[in-house]
Design brief:
alpha/beta, single chain, 57% helix, two-stranded parallel ribbon, ProC C-terminal domain-like fold
Length: 263
Amino acid sequence: MGRALVGGLLRRGIAPRSISVGEPSGPARASLEKEFGCSALPDNEQAIAGASIVVIAVKPQQAAHVLAPLRSRLAEVAPVIVSVAAGIETRSLETWCGEGVPVVRAMPNRPALVGAGATGLYARPHVSAGARERAETVMRAVGAVVWVSEESHLDLVTALSGSGPAYFFLLAETMMQAAVRRGLDPEAARALAVETLHGAGVLAHSSGDLARLRAEVTSKGGTTEAALRVFGAENGMGELVQRAIDAAAQRSRELARQFGAGD
């Protein structure tokens, strides 16, 4: 995700040398500098020197280890902290960063890699409008942004859009496999599944009214209606999706408890 954000910011016209990345791996640093022309440093304190925005793009179990040693430096300059560490709550982030450091949590998803991401953002009420705007500018570099009013809603963002691409990939993969089992050529089935997934996304993006789009594809007494009847009435797709969303949201809450700062 860090690499995706660097690429997105460069596409938005940000100068490469205004971006510094803290990266412990030598080969990864060389790759970042070669691909993007940005500065990649082995020391995080050097990487954040003079920064007005600091993006924490690490796994949740690494967040405390990365932030705690930077506490004094962060307290000095109070940059906007944008955290994409899944599940780690603002309370924990503020504990590690120190008093007075504005924190914004972000939950992007994998399509950010191609500039088509969807990101949920949350900040506590005391975070200024200017800090929110700067955080939003960073995340808009890789796609659409939606603010949520309660931090707990980020667990639902994680379940819906964060994990969501995998749900669509699974459905497309399963559709492809079902067609192959009935005799369709595998390459043809793959191409049709991928293009259908892409085309449906483009249509949804252009309209936004999902119920209307579904109804427009579903002719009364037709093939789509027959398939949707199997999904819904016979196999309870709505209930299954609800259970899946609940499971992902619960796991997000568990990550917060597991890797957060504690009480």
